Amino acid sequence: DQQVKQNSPSLSVQEGRISILNCDYTNSMFDYFLWYKKYPAEGPTFLISISSIKDKNEDGRFTVFLNKSAKHLSLHIVPSQPGDSAVYFCAASRGTYKYIFGTGTRLKVLA
Amino acid sequence: NAGVMQNPRHLVRRRGQEARLRCSPMKGHSHVYWYRQLPEEGLKFMVYLQKENIIDESGMPKERFSAEFPKEGPSILRIQQVVRGDSAAYFCASSPLTGEQYFGPGTRLTVT
After folding, report:
1. CB 3.0 to 4.6 Å from B48: which of A65, B8, B56, B90, for a disulfide?
2. pLDDT digit string, tens, across residues B5-15
């Protein structure tokens, strides 16, 4: 039972444009959500998080939006840069430690 | 400030052998987590430990897998009598009392 789903395995975006990565979840008890970025042969790197009491969190070029009624979150990267090319994982938890990860979306930013 | 360290980075074992994976958390972090990533899948939670205590091992297979985080030294994930299905990337993460988990580079285990 996949509680966190990333339905797009890959996404290509032109440099300078917006990248939008999507994530859906099924467990309404999740109260904390995160995005990680992963390069090949490296561990995931924390990007940004949001708690369920908010609907938006911004950090530089990265913004996460949370729609609790739709059980959907998205990560916006503006402007996209070639160095952003990586696999992006969303994760959710109830409480703060047992992260449930999606299967990832491979983002390719074209120069 | 060094990040989370894992060794070895790559480990090859024959079926039936034991695998030991080590994880040194970031300085100041007392919480350690182990995750497993199978090919084309997301990371799956295995176990959460604090010093000398297993807090949550609900993601660990019931047999052959064990984890520890002793008072001194790194956390160890131990897999006995490995099988081909154990081939995966194993990631360790650490965190302070509250806050996000920071991941190590992973150990890629290959069982031949």
Report:
1. B56
2. 999 999 999 99
